[in-house]
Design brief:
By secondary structure, this protein is mainly alpha-helical. It is about 80% helix and about 0% strand.
Length: about 70
């Protein structure tokens, strides 16, 4: 029992550190909690993490898609 709890805590700590590192590398304005929610929702999606978390990238993508319409 103790080993399972200890393993669960280490996995939670490692997950938090990985998400915090992603936030740091992408200079995202989202909080760590918001990033975890986004990654949890899009876990089976093939969208790159940079596109999910970078607001400026999403704005540029929307403009490019609009230009294709005209």
């Amino acid at each position: 029992m103790y080993s399972a709890v200890k393993t669960h805590l280490w996995i939670a700590i490692c997950t938090y550190l990985i998400v915090a590192y992603i936030k740091f590398e992408l200079k995202s304005n989202y909080s760590v909690y918001e990033i975890m929610l986004i990654l949890g929702i899009s876990a089976l999606d093939k969208t790159p993490i940079r596109e999910l978390l970078c607001k400026q990238c999403q704005l540029n993508q929307n403009v490019k898609e609009q230009l294709k319409l005209f």
